[in-house]
Every structure is written in structure tokens, then in C-alpha cells.
Design a protein that fits this description.
about 300 residues; flat
Length: about 300
């Protein structure tokens, strides 16, 4: 039983033919009564020795709405030589409408220094079956803008990313609503709202945070290595520049190239890999040193 399947989509199932007797089982033929809605991978007569089995794939691919049934008739030379019948049933339903889903339906940019706009990205996904058409994305507050330029069409399970920028021109709280206009649910002009907010400030600082604050590698055999990941983030409201990352202590190393100076925007982070590769048996300790423009 294939249950309900959306029209013009395909479902698959399997059944097994086995020989539980003591003599060779001859499968002379397998006939499918309806090869329009159902498919079957039978290639021709075959034999099964005692204990052997063979698996067959059956597909249900309706091209119109309705209830369907069929039979696969198996002709054989078994002890009970009557034909064996495998019943197939399935129902085809109309194609459901598009279904708009977003990764997040609100975002708080926090404190943003005037003149240093910050961005946030969210994902639009179509969980429906029919095409989702995004006609427009607009903001009711000019402090919040998006990179959406023209209509886009998303098929089933397809997605697109939208970048939202907060560029305050005045000190204080800013709130806004982003409206996505689409055919969500099969309704033209359907509107989906995302709330955004942020605070414009005149000054600020980068604030470095690391997670976790301690890396515990546990027991590692000598002449082997283990790798752990450290996150370096910025909880301030100005970009954080990492000048250098180094490690003190035998057996430890960090994946950092001299000359790298990444800039971490507020409320973002980067990942750094730290490796422990002991050359001998014993206990080891080390320290990771991070140079940045966080003056504190």
C-alpha cells in the first residue's frame, strides 16, 4: 500500500520472492496488470535455489488524481503451483500549494555604531510542492534594507538567502518589519512578516570572547594527534581585528598563518583549530595567546 502520493511524484517499495523449499524454485513469469500508474523491474524467468531470495522494486507514479490498484501475478513451479498475487494500491492527491518557511522570523542587531552598518542573513525555503514565487521584500523602516532586487522562484525544497543591513542614522532604538510578498499557500499577494530591531549608538568597542575557555584533549597516544575547535567571537559593537594567534607549550599547535588579520563583525565569530600531538608519554599543558584590537 503506497498510501497517498502527490500527483506527478513517485513513491517506491519492494517485495521479496524466496524459496523456503528443498528443491529449485522456477519463477516462470511475473505480470503487472497496470503499467501506467505502477512500474516493476522484472526482467525475465529465473531460478531460486533452496534458501535463496530476490528483491524486486515497485514504483507508483500517478499522472492524475484518483485511487489506483493493480496486481503482480507470479507464475511458478512450487508445491502449491497456484499463481501468487501481490496486490498494489495507492492514492494520488492534488499538488499542494507552495509553503514559505524562513530560518528566523525576527532578529535583534543589538548596539550598532552609527556609520558602521551591520548585516544579518536569513533563509527562505519552499517546503511545498508548487513553485514559490517571491515578488517583493520591503521594509517599513529605512534603517533596515535588504539585498532583494527582483522576483525569484523556488521549486520544492529550494531555498534562497536574503541579507538584511541595519544602518542607523540616529542614536536610539530602531524597530521595523520586513514584509515578504509571495504566493505562499497558493494565494497571490500573501504577506509574511519578519521583525527586526537594533540600537544606534555613537561610540563603542570590540569585545573578544572565546568558547570554550579551556580545551581538554584527554588521553592521546604518543605520536598521534587530536584536534579541537575554538571559537573566537565579538560581543562588542565595533569590528574585532585578530592580529595573531599563537600557542605556548610542547605538543600543542594552532592552525594560524602569519599575516592573517581577520576582521570579526559584531555578534559573529571565527573558528580556530588547535592540535595536540604529544611526542612522548606524560601530562601536557599550554596556553593560547590571541592578539586583537580589544583594548581590555
Amino acid at each position: 500500500d503506497f498510501g497517498e502520493i502527490v500527483v506527478n511524484f513517485t513513491a517506491s517499495s519492494q517485495f521479496t520472492v524466496s524459496n523456503s523449499g528443498r528443491e529449485t524454485l522456477d519463477i516462470d513469469d511475473m505480470v503487472l496488470s497496470d503499467d501506467e500508474a505502477f512500474t516493476f523491474d522484472f526482467a525475465g524467468a529465473f531460478e531460486l535455489e533452496p534458501g535463496e531470495e530476490r528483491v524486486f522494486d515497485v514504483g507508483f507514479a500517478p499522472v492524475e488524481v484518483g485511487d489506483f490498484d493493480a496486481e503482480i501475478t507470479i507464475t511458478h513451479n512450487g508445491v502449491n503451483a497456484d499463481d501468487v498475487v501481490v496486490n498494489l494500491v495507492g492514492t494520488s492527491i492534488p499538488t499542494p500549494p507552495p509553503d514559505l518557511v524562513v530560518s528566523e522570523n525576527e532578529n535583534d542587531f543589538g548596539e550598532v555604531v552609527i556609520g558602521t552598518p551591520q548585516s544579518w542573513e536569513f533563509q527562505i525555503r519552499n517546503n511545498g510542492y508548487q513553485d514559490l514565487v517571491i515578488d517583493e521584500i520591503f521594509s517599513d523602516n529605512e534603517a533596515f534594507t535588504t539585498d532583494f532586487e527582483a522576483s525569484i522562484t523556488l521549486g520544492r525544497d529550494e531555498s534562497s538567502f536574503v541579507i538584511v543591513t541595519f544602518d542607523p542614522q540616529e542614536i536610539g532604538l530602531h524597530e521595523g518589519v520586513l514584509t515578504i510578498v509571495s504566493n505562499d499557500g497558493g494565494e497571490e499577494g500573501s504577506e509574511f512578516e519578519i521583525s527586526v530591531s537594533g540600537v544606534g549608538t555613537q561610540g563603542g568597542n570590540p569585545v573578544i570572547v572565546v568558547s570554550p575557555e579551556e580545551l581538554e584533549f584527554g588521553e592521546v597516544p604518543s605520536n598521534r594527534d587530536a584536534v579541537l575547535t575554538l571559537e573566537i567571537g565579538n560581543e562588542g559593537n565595533l569590528p574585532l581585528t585578530i592580529g595573531d594567534v599563537s600557542v605556548i607549550g610542547d605538543g600543542f599547535s594552532v592552525a594560524w598563518n602569519d599575516g592573517d588579520a581577520p576582521e570579526i563583525q559584531p555578534r559573529n565569530f571565527i573558528e580556530v583549530e588547535v592540535t595536540f600531538a604529544p611526542g612522548e608519554i606524560g601530562d601536557f599543558e599550554g596556553e593560547l595567546l590571541i592578539e586583537s584590537n580589544d583594548e581590555e
